Amino acid sequence: MDKKVIILSIAFAAIACIQHLITKGNINRETFTIAILSSIILAFYFTWFIPKLNLRKRDAYFLTCITLFVVASLNNFIEAYFFTDVFNTTFTLVAAIIVSLLTTLIQTALAIYILKPEGNITLINDIREHVKTNDHYVLRIIAASLVYFPVYLTFGLIISPFVIPIYTNPQNGLSVPSFSLMFPLELVRGAIYAIVLAAVFASLKKQKNLNFKVAATLLFIPGAFIPLLSSLTQANAFSQVAPYHMFEILGDSIVYGYIISRIFHKV
Fold first, then answer.
1. Of 187, 199, 201, 200, which is closest to residue 144 (Cα–Cα)?
2. What residues form the membrane-spanning segments (predicted)?
C-alpha cells in the first residue's frame, strides 16, 4: 500500500473516531472497524481523484472541500431530513452540517498537503474556459438538474418492494414523502449535483471518459457507499435498508454519471 494512502487512512480514521466520540460519547468495536475501513476507502479515493485536477493547491483545496461536503454530507442530510427521523429538529440538522463541514475542511487540508496537486490553473479560469467550450451552459445545468429525478425514481422503484415495508412501518422512524414533496426535493438535489459536477468537470485534466469516471465514483463512493457503510452499525431501521440503497445508488451513480458527462463535454 502506498505510504500516502497509509498516512491519510490513519489520519482519517483518527478524525472519524474523535468525531464519533464527541457526537455519540463512546465508540464500540463495530464502529471502530467501519471507521477504519471507510477511512482506507476515502484515502484511496483521494489519491486517485486529486491528481486528476488541473488546479493549483489553493483552488484544488476549495473545490475538493466543497465537492466532498456537498456530495457526502449536505445532499444526504437534506434527504434524510425528509425521509427519516434522524434530524427530528432543525437544530440537530444544522449541528450535523456544521460538524460535517469542519470534518471535511480538516480531511481535505490533510489530503492536499500530503498529495500536493501539481496543477497551476485557477478554478475561475477553468470554469470560464468550460463555459466557452459548452454552448448554452445554463440550459445544460437545467437539463442535468431535471434528468436526475427520473434516474433517481427508476432505481428507487426497483428496490421499492424490499424497502417499502420497512419505510411504511411507523415504529421504524422512516417515511416516504408524497410525490408533491419528493419531486421538488429531488429537483433541488439534482441541481446541486449538476452545479458541483459542472465545476469539477471544468477542473479535470483532459483524459478520455474522465468526466464519467469522476462523476460516477464521486456520487457513489464518498456520496453513498461510505455514509451507508457507517449506517450499518446503527441500531435502527435504516441499517436494514442501507444495503438496498447501496445497490440503488450504484445504479443512480453510473447512469446519472454517464448522462451528465455527456451533457457537459470538455474540448
1. 187
2. 32-48, 60-78, 90-116, 137-167, 187-204, 211-232, 244-264
